[in-house]
Amino acid sequence: MSTTNGAESGGGGVxxxxxxxxxxxxxxxxxxxxxxxxxxxxxxxxxxxxRLTSEPYRRGALGGVTERRLQGLxxxxxxxxxxxxxxxxxxxxxxFVVPGDAEWPRQLDDLGDARPVGLWxxxxxxxxxxxxxxxxxxxxxxxxxxxxxxAASLASGLAERGWVVVSGAAFGVDGAAHRGALAVDGATVxxxxxxxxxxxxxxxxxxxxxxxxxxxxxxxxxxxxxxTRSRFILRNRVIAALTRGTVVVEAEYRSGSLVTARSxxxxxxxxxxxxxxxxxxxxxxxxxxxxxxxxxVTDAAEVAELVGDIxxxxxxxRGPVLPRDLLGPVSARVLEALPPRGTPVTAxxxxxxxxxxxxxxxxxxxxxxxxxxxxxHGQGWQLTAEAMRRPNTRRGGA
Length: 398
Description:
Elements: H1 16-28, H2 34-43, H3 45-53, H4 67-79, H5 82-91, E1 94-97, E2 119-122, H6 127-131, E3 134-138, H7 145-160, E4 164-167, H8 173-183, E5 188-192, H9 205-214, E6 216-219, H10 229-242, E7 245-248, H11 256-266, E8 270-273, H12 284-291, E9 295-296, H13 300-307, H14 329-337, H15 347-354, H16 358-370, E10 374-377, E11 380-383, H17 385-389
Parallel strand pairs: 3-4, 3-7, 4-5, 5-6, 7-8, 8-9
Antiparallel strand pairs: 1-2, 2-6, 10-11
């Protein structure tokens, strides 16, 4: 099997017979099949495949499921042609990565018996090093312009900080996230619910092609396999396990994106949400997450601060610095003590209002005069017209 294009070798310590058996089993077992995962753990891939293909079949060779279910698995196993599938993925510049390979992302082992049998990977980069510094950005297919903007902005900001953006290549938020990373020549991974040689959705054929060139396409299903509703849902557990955290941008109450987020929570990964309008049904699911254990984020810096290493801090948030913010405490009190435009007051009157001495009040008045806040009329002082127009120069923002 080819390992061209700079990817890590898929060989590792895994024998060719085991690789062939696992490739065959991706045709037999559905993603996330925990019965199949238990059989794999207890028997190993070669023995499991042997029991599924043995003739005559020995009843009770595999427990935990009905005989009807086993018959269906045996039919699939009889039709599996792993050599053909491995040749097909090699033809599109891909490879088959299995547990025990150097490229296998070990965080997927957290899924237990729901761990993928193996991963079909297409692209030049090594999956494991990319996954170690990755964040999932997911959300609604029918997203709003706000959702698309936030997804693209988060993804581009994360990519510029050296993070890999992972999503599902669907319409809406997923597509916007991938495009945001690609726009800044960043790294992105699309986890598919079909074969890595199948452009789905078809409207994203161009985008998926770009990801294959610049990033990685990853899937549990062998070449040529098409998606189903259940495969989309089960794909989300891989997105959650592969990454350090999941950001949900827009999601209704019944959304596959929430499945990803809740999987991330169960796995001990960070779960984040981007808030939307309280009246938006597309943000209702995100807000429900935020009422629980999810963390509110609004930009890439806040995401990186949460999932990153020590020192990756978001900048302190505050409003704009106004000239008045730079005044000393005495001058600020004197400015507050001056009445609105009208009869000028003396330095003594200003000192009484500010609770300061006359000399220091007079010094503050001259400072305020040089800054354009007050003007002098004989022995009296009053606010300038400009000071009255400036925000936050009076109590209440007058």
